[in-house]
Amino acid sequence: MEDEYLKGVWNSPNNEIGILFNIDDQFFETIQIKKAKSKLKSLLFPKTIGILLGLGWISFVFMLIYFCVLFTPMSVGKFFLVGSFSMILISTVLAVFLYIKDIFTIKQIDNCESVTITQRKLATLQFSIMKSVRILWIQLPFYTIWYLNYELIMHGSIIFWVVQFFCTGLTTWLAVWLFKNINYENLNNKRVRNFMRGYGFYSVIQSLDFVKEIDSFKNDR
Questions:
Q1: Alpha carbon of residue 3 to chain centroid
Q2: What does the longest C-alpha to C-alpha distance in the chain come to?
Q3: Which are the contacts of 100, defined by CB distance < 8 A and separation ≥ 6?
Q4: Number of domains forming the structure of the chain
Q5: Average pLDDT value for residue range 67-72
Q6: Are residues 53 and 42 in contact, defined by beta-carbon separation less than 8 angstroms?
Q7: Is pLDDT at 66 greater than 70 in this prediction?
Q8: How many Cα atoms are found within 13 Å in the side-chain-facing hemisphere of 121?
Q9: Closest by alpha carbon to 61, among 78, 81, 79?
Q10: Domain containing residue 201
Q11: From 145's CA, which of 31, 43, 82, 196 has a CA 20 to 30 Å away?
Q12: DSSP 181-214
């Protein structure tokens, strides 16, 4: 009886079998996009916290620079403090801007239904997360030199300079390495992927995999 039904559907002039396949495709596509959106929503809370903390840090650093410029005399120490915290301020502002942009991108993905548009937005989100991580870490060496002044430079002990060069050299190497290696070409690098996992990057990869399964499903039909 079941075989007769399937034969009837197959030979139907109304192409019922095509309609059934199309409904099945649409159902699978809807499920996969919902899975992708669910993964992305988990990024909204940490991104929001990051923005709030970033804005607080920006305010503090800005006030520090402001009072230092207005109320302290010109000196070597002032140069290091203002210069270092200016770089920290700029990089933090850029990172917060990218975090805000990421939230808007996630909201757009949540509202769009097209698979192609979803894939494009996910790729944009990937690139934005990588860029914000690179910007955040490039400021790291400046945390090791902001306190330098004339007295330390002229009269610092050997131990001080050994520790200073080690810390500044290590953080500079790490910042440059991350800036150079966090990119699309190195996404298959285990160290890079594990490092990016803590920034929500893995959730975006999972979302992209859910969407890619739609194309695989259609191609296998």
A1: 53
A2: 97
A3: 51
A4: 1
A5: 93
A6: no
A7: yes
A8: 24
A9: 81
A10: 2-220
A11: 196
A12: H-SGGGTT-HHHHHHHHTTTHHHHHHHHHHHHHH
Secondary element (H or E) of residue 13: none
For 162-212, the pLDDT digits (tens) are: 999 999 999 999 999 999 888 878 877 778 877 887 787 778 877 777 666
- Structure tokens that stand for 150 in this block: 């004339």
User: Distance between CA atoms of 221 and 100, rounded to whole angstroms?
Assistant: 40
DSSP string, 19-30: HHHHHHHHHHHH
> Residue 48 corresponds to which tokens in the numbers above?
């929001």
**What are the tokens at 164?**
């200073």
Q: Which residues contact 71 (CB under 8 A, 6 or more apart)?
A: none
Task: Name the 3-class secondary structure at 139.
Answer: coil
- For tokens 């910042």, the residue is 175
Q: What confidence tier does 21 reach under pLDDT thresholds 50, 70, 90?
A: very low
Provide the CB-side half-sphere exposure for 171 (13 A, CA). Answer: 16
As a whole number of angstroms, the distance between CA 208 and CA 202 comes to 10
